[in-house]
Structure formats: C-alpha cells, structure tokens
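Feature request, filed as a ticket because there's no other form

It would be nice if the structure record came with a short human-readable summary line next to the tokens. Right now we just get the raw output. Example of a typical job, pasted below so the devs can see what we mean:
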Amino acid sequence: MKYLTNCDKELCPAISKFLKQLACDSWQDWMTEDCTTIRRERDGDRILYTHVIQEDVVVQWELVWSIDLLSRLAYPTGTYSQEKPLSPPKTFFPHVILYEFGPLRVSSDQEFNALGTTFESSCSIDELHELLMQFKNREQRDEVTYNDELYLLATDRIEDLLSGNQKGLPVHLSEEQVDVLQSLGPVLLSGEAGSGKTLVIVHWLVINHIRYSEANKESPKQLFVTFSERLRTSAKKMFEDMLPVKYNVHLTRFITYRELVIRLLETGKRRIPEASHEMDFGRFMREYSNKISQLDPVLVWDEVRSVIKGSAIPPDSRFIDFETYQTLSDSRGQCKTPTDLRERFYMAAQAYQSYLRTEKLWDAIDLAYQCIEIVDGDEAPLEQYDRIACDEVQDLAPVEIQLLLRLVRQGLVENIFLTGDTAQVINPSGFHWNRLKQALGEHGQKRSIEDVQHLQRNYRTSSEIIDLVNAVLSIRRGILADEASKSHQSSLIRTNLKPMIIKQSPLEILVEAQSNPKTRLILVKNSEEKANLRNLLQESADRYSILTVEESKGLEWDGVLLWNFFIPRHKEITRNDWESMFTRAKREWLISQIELGKANPYSLTYEYNLLHVALTRCRHKLFIFDEDEKMRLENLSFAGIECTAYTTEVDLGTFNVHWRTEEASPQELQEHAERLHDRARQESLIFYERAAEGFAKRAKESGNIGDWKRAGENFMHAELYSKARTAFKNAQEDAKALEAGARHFESQEAWLKAGNIWMERGDLMGTGSEATASYYSARTAYARAGSQELEAEAATQCARAVPIDKRIARAERFVEASESWKDAGHTDRAIECLETAITQGEAERQDKPTQTIVGEPIASWLAGLYGELGQLYAKTGDPAMAAKNGDKAASLYFTSGNLRYESVYAQAIEWYIEALEFEKAQAAQQKLIQYFKKNPDYLGRFRVHLRRFENKYEEVDELEARVNTILEHARLLWAFSHEAKGNERRGYIREGRELITGRSKALEKAGHVEEAIRLLEELAHFCDLPDVADYLCAGIAKRKTAALYQELDKVTYRIDALMEAGQHLMKVRDRSASEVFNECTYLIIREYRPDRAGWMIFRHIGIENYWNDMKAMGKWIRQAVPQFLKEEKKSIGLLRRFLEDRNKRIDDHRLHSRKHDEYREVRRKGWALICLALIDKTRKKQWTREFEELYGTYENNAGFMDERNRIRSMFPELYPRER
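Raw output as currently delivered:
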C-alpha cells in the first residue's frame, strides 16, 4: 500500500498496466502462459506468483476463489442503505491477493511466508492447469483467511491510487461483516474486542455517503460518535482513506461523546462545567461508596445512572417518580433491583443527588439533560444529521442515547447504526440490547426493530486466548446467565501458545528484563495496585506500560501480563466478589440465591466484565500471575468447564524467554506515547521522555538535525520544556525553541516572561496560523500576569497576523482586541480595532451577503459590531458618531429580521438627541413608529422608548421635539384605545389624559404656555369616539386651553376654545357647559361687532347645542337679539341666508325620508323665524305667520304642536292678547 501511494512517477504506467492486466478477462491465459518474467511456487494446492514488471520492481500475489465482496457492496447505486438490501446474492469469483509490491530481491532459494505457509517448490505449467481445475471443482470457501489486513483495489481506483489522490482503500470484509451492511436500519451490532465493529460502521458511513451523494448531488450530514479520541481519529482517517476521489468532499463529522456534549452546551450558551468537578464512576467508588450502607455501591451507581436518574424522559424532575420505578420490569432489562429493595435504592439516589448539589459536583447525566433541554427548546438552531453512528454504545446511559436519537433528522431511527459489547461494560450504564430496542421503537413511532446482530470472528487475538475467553464466558453463563455471557468468538490466528500461568513472582525478571512497552503490557486491577507495582519495580517501572483495566480499554498489545487480577476493586471495599467463585459451596449457595431473587449478581457481573476486557487486551502472548494461591484464573471452573484446560503453567525461565523483546526504538516509544495520550496521560509522559532521550542520544552520535527536532517534539509532549528548547536550538528550529522557552516560563508561572517570548515568536512567524497562535498565547500569558495593556497589544497583533484573505477570522480577532482595549481603558484603541473589524466584515458581506457567522446572518453579526462601536463613541463623548453607528446597526438588524432592531434604533435616537441632531432624531422616531405599527405586539415596548426620548429632550432643553414626543406617546395610547374594549379601553384613555394634563401642567409651570396648549389641543381632539369619557375629557381640556389663552391674552383663541369646550360638554349633558357658554358669550359681546356677536350666540351656541331645549334656546335668543338689533340690517341678512339653507336641507331630508334630520332642521328654522320676528319690527307679523305656517305643516305631530304652544307662551310680545 505504501509503495503504491508513494511510488516513482516514472513507474506508474507500468504498474497501472500490470494491475489492469490482472483485472481483465484474459487474466487466466496471461497468468498460465509460459512467461519467463513470472515465477510460480507452490505449497500443496496454493500457488505464489512472482513477476518482475520493470527493472527491480517485483510483485508477488496469490490466486484465490472467494465471494465477490466488491459486487455485494457495489456502490454507488443511488439508493439509501436502509431502503433495501445492499447487494445481490452470494457469487464466487477469482481474486488476486497482492502480498508484496516494490523493489524486492528475488532469488532461486527465496522463502516467502504468507499465512504461515512456506512456498518452496516451483510449479510447472501442467501443475498450474491442474490446480486451477481443482479450484473450480472443489467446495468453495466462503471467504479468504488471512493474518494481516487486506484492501480491496477496484480497477477504477488504480490511477487515483498511483497519482497520490487516493490515500487509502476499503478494507476487505468478512462475509458476516458484509451481511451486517445488507441489513435494514436501525442496525444494532454486537461484537467483542477485535471483531471489526468499527470497520463495519465506517464502511456503513462510506457507503451511505456515496449513495446519498449520487442520488442527491450533495453530501449527507453524518455523525460518528465514540468515547475514545484515539478511535475517533482512526475512524476518521479510515473513512477518508476509503472514499473514492470523486466523493472525497464530505460532511461527516467524527467526534467524541464528550466533545458533542460540550458543543451542544456552547450552542445553547450554557456554562461549561469544570472537569475537576465531575463525578465519574471511579470518583464515586473512591469518595462516595463508603456513604452507602447495606447496598452494593456498584449497583447503586448503575441504578442511578441507568434508571432512577438516567431514564427520566422528559427531564421534568431529573428523576423518575417512585411509583413508576416500582412498576419497572427486571425481565425486560428495565431494572436490576428486586422490588422489595427499590425504596432503599431510590432514597440512596436522592441522597447522592443532594451530595452533588452540596459539593457543587456534576455527572454525565446532568450534562445530557442540559443538552436535551437545548435540543428540545428554542435556545439555538438545532444541527441535525442524516445518519448517526455510535461506537461503544454500551457506555451510554438511556438519557444519553435519547440525546443521540434527537439529533437524527426527522427522528428517522432507520438512519442509525449502533455497536456495542455488553461484556465490556466497565462504566456501569444499565445497558441492555432489549432496552435499546424498546427506546428505538418508541422514538420511531412504535416501528418494529430488528434483533441485534453478532460478529463471531476475532481478527486480533489468537485462537488460544479466545478459547480461554470463551471458557470464562461459559462459566459466567452458568452462574449469571446474563446477556453478555451468550457471546462466543472464534479466531483464525493460531500461535500454539496457550495463556501462560506463572506461579512464582516474576518481579526480579521484570526488574532486569528488556522489553518493548509498545508490545508488552502489565495489566493491573486498580490504581492502588498500579502504584504498588511501580514502587516494587522502582527505576525499571518506566520501561513498562503499567495500566489499569479501565485505562487499557480499546487498546491491545502483543504480550500482556495480567497481574493480581482477583484482588478487590477498591481498597475501601473489603468484600471481594470473587471469593464465592473459587469455593464450591459458596458458589452453589450464590447461584441458588440468585435463582430465588435473594441475591443481586450485578457486582459480580461488573467483575466478569473487567476480566473479559483484561483477557482481550492481548493478541498473542498472555501471562497471568496471582499472588493468592486459591484465587487464580486456572482454578476458575463450573459444571465441567475448567480454565486450567485452556492455560499452561510455565516457569520463570520460559516467561523470561517469551517476555523479553528487543529494545524499543525512539520512534516506537513515541508512537506508544501517542497511543496512551488520551487514556493514561501520566504513562504517556514517561514514554515521550524516553523517546526524546533516545532521539537526542542518536542525534549526538550522528549530528542529525532531524533527530534533534524529533527529540524536541517529544520533550515538549513530555512537558520538559527546557530540554525541548535546547534540542530545538540544536535542530536550528528557532520558532520551536521560542515556543519551548515560553512553555517553560509558563510552567514556572513567570507569565510576563512567557508573554514576551510568545510575542517574539509571533514576530518571527509574521502572518498565518503559527503567528496568530503565538500572539494568542502571549495574550493569555499577559492576562495571567494581570497586564491588561500588554494583553490588548498582543490581541491586536494576533488580529493583524491573520491573513488578509481570511476576512471573517481577521474581523473576529479584531473584535477580541477591541474588547481587550476597552477593558484596559483605552477606548480610542478599542474603536480603532472595532472599525477595522467592521471594514473586514463589510467586505465579506458584499461578496457573500447570505453567509452566516457564529450561527447568525452576517448582517446581524455586523449590526452587533456597529452597535458596540456606537457604545464606544458614546463613552468618548461623541454622541453624533454614536448615533451614526447605532443607526447603521439598527438598519442591518432590520435587514436581517433581528428583533434587536427596535432597541438599538431607540438607543441611536437618544444619541441623536444628545448630539442635538433633532431632525435626524425626529425622522428616526417616525421610522420606529412605522415599525411598531406593523408589529403591534411590541407597542408596549415603544411606550418605554418614548418616555426615554422625552427625558432626553428635556435634558437638552429641546422643547418642540419634547412636545412632539409627548404627543406621539398620547396618540399611541389613543390608538391602543381604539382596539380595546371596556375597562381596558377606559384605562388607556385615563392614562393618555393623565399624560397630557400632567405634562401640560409641567410646561405651564415652566413658562411654556403655548406648548402646554399644544398638548391640551391634542387631548381635545381625542373626542372622535362617541363615548362619555372621550367628550368629557375633551371638554375639560378645551376649557383648560381657554384659560391658558387668557394668560397669553389671545381672546379669539380663548373664545374658540370655550366654544369647543361647551360643545363637548353639552354632548354629555354636563352642567358646566352652561358656565362655559356664559363666559364665552361675555367675551363674544365684548370683542366682536354686534351682528357677528349675535350670530355666534344664536348660531354657534344656541342652535348648534340647544335647538331641542326649549328653555335654553329661548335664553340664548334673548341674549342674541340685543346684539342683532344694533346692526339690524346685517343681522336680518345673516338670518335670511340661514333660512334659505334650512329650506334646502328640509326638502332634501323629506325627499329621502330622513324624518329625524328633517324635524331637526324644522326646529332650527322655527327658532330663526322667531329671532327674525323679534328684530325685524316692520315685518314681525310676516315672520310670525311663517312660523305658524311651518309648524302648521306638522299639525298631526303632537310634539310639534306642544312645542309651538310653549314658544308662543315664551314670546308674548309676538302674540299680543286680543282685547
């Protein structure tokens, strides 16, 4: 593989030709022809071909007949994997296994070992034909057996592979693995360590990616979740290596479960909890288990995590209620505890949760519930996936599984692939396949879920070790009869080495022997035993990998020494769960108690899981040592199954031979340290240091600069920064030497020195990621030193170091720099940085207007920057610039549909007012008013803004704008009242009246009488609606306005105000109306000509308001007549024109049968005729006669007749008594 992807480009045509020749239809003729360039060797019915294709480039291969896996996994087909089986039925096909490819030295006596076979004898053409016939006629093998990984090379990938565009190939799968990929989803896959679960799940992601891309012309969003960083990294590399060049752009995310949770918390803007406050299983057993009396602490943890706390969906109380807990079924995997003990477990769970709160601790279930709240709520846009794959699902609690299910698009559980191994549950989670099926069924709307599938083949561990593992599982099944014990594996790898039992302590050999920690592991039960063994080994301990079972999970070694496994898990727990396993009477009693439901086996289940993980860490050579002569693995037995049959006892000499290895090279030590980094950090530091020392030693001997560089890198990983700096200087790596120096000072907490060196490194790097990283580290160091100015300067340099073409990243850094300068008290520098950020952002917006940044549209993001810039300018005392930027922020928020628009715009208006730019402020207010008219639900907030504007205008003594704002506020309340009813409507009216009257009083008191009048005029105009409160309010306002006009000595305005006040008050029959009109009459007579005065009294006071009030109308005529008489001729003209107008109106109303309107105008005409009769002495009888004739027309109307008689009695001078 490495040769094909890195071969000499001149050889590519020849290699390509050869590979395509193997794939063509005439391969058999070419392979069997008598060709001098092909050599054939055989071992029984197997043939090894050796062929020189060009000069010294040699290829070796073997021909086999096997299932055509490529066609069974043929992709793309344009269909989703869950819609139907992926491939056609099984077919057999000739395959070529390429063993070697490259510049090999081939001699006549060459021995080539493949699959443990030695090919020595040559094969003639006749023998070859005979063997080929046997291939076709014999029973076909279902699959190819092999020791190392095989890769599938299709002809359409040859050119991409040779060109370097294709970095890897799909790994060859077994038939059982292919069968899994043919299944309909959701896929549930069980397999023990080494069975290839991860390989299958990655193939699933690859196939779905290609199929979806082919069908939809775009990549699917897929998510791969696991607990191990190492597994995440290897799965991602495997996925990307397998992808064909045509489909290598993908949206598949590989992430650890903890990274997923942190990402969701960040999305929901939740606080990220401190890792030091986490309560995990180890901490629970160390710190809390002694607080639990008469209950198994392992089962308490499991019950809390998996049932009582970990299954309360939805998370209303974070606990299921006790009644529900009591009804759970243990037979369906819902609960493990007996019914009669559940109350005690429930109380223990409550006490545990109380302890977490008191000690300010958290556990993984708390985080899962927070994430579910984010996913189910509206806190942030939810990112969902077309496919979700989770490896090692057995480590997830029910609520954590529910979180994953919520992330699959549209809740389609058929797009989920979950793998696990119940025998490897060493962080108790209550995992059960049946329980998982139930959860999937409920989430998938009660759809049927296929049973879990099992991988039986182990591709990592020798068959001799697998035999022992199967024996332990059989014993477990006889005692516990649990789900995990039903699994058995097989292996094709044979070493002829049974697991070796050592009865004498091998400690002296371990002290003296040389071994490679990459291939040899000492495996212990717990951290206490690990510390004890390291103490016994003293200086020799650093030569070995010494790990606990938990630390080793997911890793494997060629040779493993299992040390004192059967001791108690924790020293705080005195009871040893294994004691009953090695005494027949105790074992039989325990089994009977379990069968009767009187003993809970879960603690022992956990122990068996630990043992299973421990045994499967080894590939080939397993050594077992136990100090306790009674409790030893070879003594474990049940019902005729004895572990001793699958082990062999060896002496120390034999152990020494098998344990010793060649000394590890520096490169091997480095690789091993990298492998341990995320599982056993302290162990990894040891091996980084050893690797560094080895590279440094080699560099001193050879002077190789590359070795000095590798030494420096490993010293850095080992956190030995002073040594790393020296190594990098020797390697002439100035930038790395500076980094090491900075790290050294950081480790000494000399933060200023560290910051200075980081700045020096940034200056050296110039621009780019290395420079920005250096400046950012400098910023962090200065912050730790408490130097805000230096921190801000480093942040600015960090921003400048971002390449110009990365505008958004550059802008974000300048925003950070602005914040730092603001914190340092340098507002001018903060403004400078923020303006640079905005310039970068605006340029990006012009090119990509629909882009999103940090989950929001770029326009909205920029709006936030403009708003912040406005705040900074306001801080410097420049409200004009503050308002300009605030206005821009509001405009961008409006464009992006962000609700912050109105609050930001309101702030900008206040800044305009402070800047005395009143026209802009008023224009902006009108825009805001229009916005609120379109969004009436937010009108309440606008009222708050208006009060703030009014206060601002008052501060700057801008009277007119202040009055306008008060009026807008009042009009807003009027608008509210139009939409409201009953008490709510009256409340708005009252609030508006109080606003106007209160402000008008304040203005009057301040000497602003005209402005007070403007407010009261607005209040009077609010009588548009026929409501008593409206008219009364308007009348009072107008009367107050008249009083203010008196202060201004504006008599005509005062008369008009009184006139309107009286009219409003008359509409509600208020007694004060008469007083108002009397005052108005006095002023009219005093100020106007007699004819006009009489007309106003008669027409505007009398006729308009009292035409239907006999007594009052008579009164106003008596007051009008004296004025009319002073200008008789003009007055008669006015009244005659009034009569002509009334005649037209009466005819019109009569024509259209509007009786009420007709009667009103008849009465008004009658009063005009009486008035004319009183002032026109020469024609008094004529006007009186017309009055009689007018009312006589309605002689059938009793009302009119009564009115006529009353009028006659009111004006006797018009009707003298006959003598």
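Something like this underneath would help us a lot:
Residues 467 and 646 are 7 Å apart (CA to CA).
The chain has a mean pLDDT of 80.
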